TrEMBL record:
Organism domain of life: Bacteria
Organism: Vibrio japonicus
The CENP-V/GFA domain, residue ranges: 5-121
Protein name: GFA family protein
Keyword Amino-acid biosynthesis listed: no
Membership in a protein family: Belongs to the Gfa family.
Amino acid sequence: MSNQHQGSCLCGGVQFELTGEFDKFFLCHCQRCQKGTGSVHAANLFSHPQQFKWLKGEELVTTYRLPDTRHSRSFCSNCGSAVPTYVEKLGLAVVPAGCLDTEVDKVPDARIYVGSAASWTKRLDNIPSFDQFIPSPDSAGGKD
């Protein structure tokens, strides 16, 4: 298991490095994470901030903190991709798993706030799965 991780945003303008193991890995189904990711849940890894450093583009990072909560998220101001956030109240760096360029060996520790999960996520076990995008018969067949 590697303890060196690199990550970046979609446009490559923001790059970072993290050394050490991740303390926790949560799939969070709260409504704040749903809205912040535009998806069914956030997949966040937690680490001590002294293990983290920006390699490029720190000036492109914008952080939104929801007032009167611990909820915050950082993103690249160029492409909007989620990037790590330091959460002062927790004393931890929160690293969105999807922004990592290196493999994560850690399995999520838990699904949290499942009471807020979208109802349709409970019916996904029997739907078809594909290795790539399948355009509809009437689509133009554009790139992903």
